[in-house]
């Protein structure tokens, strides 16, 4: 990082000194920025080494035909060098419109988008509902909060394991359904039911985060706004629509964006809940992981290609989202 | 299924409905209070049930007991716990997980705090790009990075080592925590920094001795998030930890299935043991959660 040279005078919030000469100013801002850079340096180094380099290397791999048979590796004391070839954009062409690309990519993409929309929608609406319930003056509010956050406090693989037992063919959920004379799908293998199961479990796991974030947002809306709205004769719905929702906008836009990113890349829940069963319910991330690690030979290049496609989808989505957000704020 | 479909209904009822009787603002009729309690109780039960369920299964001594939960009542025992603690590698894995999780928490929170502070207070060239990059790293799907990460860790000789795993986790955790911390620092008035500077503290001194103590709720949330993520992470740990004495719990639990031919009762007991420290830690920080998280979200 070319720290010193770029240390141009900036509109720092705390330059209160009388304007010194140019050299002096450069020195000043250099010393100021020196602190800033020292403080962000660990992040830049860690991310550069552990995320930046792997990403670059991953992108490079997508342009080759690397798999676990031709990638360099160490066997005992012998080092076997890389022997894969550069194939250009062939992987992308193959994944996007090669033979069988519908089954391999597009069907999973459609399901991934559907999965993201469903999960984030459920997270948000249930989380908001619960947050609004908890924002009332209520006896035992702390107890409710501790109980409701529980799905977040317990590690995912533990709760997912519990759900697996509950959803297994003769587990408690199907027993209950049988008791009510409802159909008892095999949740972990039937294509449609396993998708439903994944959405249910992910919703269960993700609601507490939304709830806590939105609860904080609700608490930051001044009570006077509600009073004023009530004086003006606003109905409960109008208060919700014109006071609560706008008051939550900043919190919402952040948690929805994070929710979309996290859900789109949600790996653990589907991987642990469904394992290798039910290929139809795999979202793109688990599908790519399966190509890269769950089969022999491991198709590194193809797996990385899926990864890069996923990343680009998210980047495009995020930039549109941010733009839309900025425009909305401009209008408001 | 009756379980989840009941949940979305609370949304419209959340605001107190207009009661015919004249009443002070914020007051509710008894019926509405009962309704609120009812909805919250149902939601709490749904949140609680899977956790209780696995604790209940773990008490049954037989591996098919999860199919007949009713029969557990007659033959409850803590035998599974005894077996797991004495006859498996549980304690080793537990130690490994603890080490990795605590190491990650300390490192990630420190790094995230310095970054968050720098971005919140100092307008250095590139701070905007830095925040954008941090958000971007949240989008990296695991499939792109896991293979190259494996390569780089092996060339740095960090494969199968605690440090390697700690650094990997920090790489995934720090970006979110830095956002969180930046949001929290933004809520602390700049005047405090200025007062510190006037009294002769260096920028580092201001950060460390004035701002860090004030940011405790934010730090608690970041620590909570880091600890839980590191404690419960599966794919990286199962790819990078190769020898069984280095396994973390999440990896250990998986080998356990094949090793014991899917003995669900033992797995259930192990799961409960895994969940305990996380839950404990969680309840230590939970009173800070609401303030800490929201500051992060509201000010981004």
The helical percent of chain B reads over 70%
Largest sheet of chain A at a glance? 2 strands, antiparallel
- Quote the distance from N terminus to C terminus of chain B: 37 Å
Tell me the name of the CATH class of the largest domain in chain B. Answer: Mainly Alpha
Classification by helices and strands of chain B: mainly alpha
Number of beta strands of chain A: 2
| Alpha plus pi helix count of chain A | 14
Based on CA atoms alone, the radius of gyration of chain B comes out at 24 Å
**Poorly predicted residue ranges of chain B:** 1-21
- Count every beta strand of chain B, where a strand is a DSSP E run of 2 or more residues: 0
Largest sheet of chain B, in brief, is:
none
The tally of structural domains of chain B comes to: 2
Largest sheet, spatial ordering of strands of chain A: 1-2
Secondary-structure element order of chain B, N to C: HHHHHHHHHHHHHH
Overall SS class of chain A: mainly alpha
Describe the SSE topology:
The complex is a heterodimer of chains A (332) and B (300).
Chain A: H1 3-6, H2 22-62, E1 73-75, E2 78-80, H3 90-97, H4 101-134, H5 141-153, H6 156-167, H7 172-179, H8 191-219, H9 223-231, H10 236-247, H11 249-264, H12 268-274, H13 284-293, H14 300-331
Chain B: H1 2-5, H2 10-13, H3 30-57, H4 79-87, H5 90-121, H6 127-137, H7 142-155, H8 162-186, H9 190-198, H10 203-214, H11 216-232, H12 235-240, H13 249-259, H14 264-298
What does this structure look like?
- The complex is a heterodimer of chains A (332) and B (300).
- Chain A has 332 residues and is mainly alpha-helical.
- Chain A is 71% helix and 2% strand.
- Chain A has 14 helices and two strands; from the N terminus they run ααββαααααααααααα.
- Chain A has helices at 3-6, 22-62, 90-97, 101-134, 141-153, 156-167, 172-179, 191-219, 223-231, 236-247, 249-264, 268-274, 284-293, 300-331, and strands spanning 73-75, 78-80.
- Chain A is globular, with a radius of gyration of 26 Å.
- Mean pLDDT of chain A is 80; it is low at 1-17.
- Residues 1-21 of chain B have low confidence and may be disordered.
- Chain B folds into two domains: 2-57; 83-298, MetI-like fold (Orthogonal Bundle).
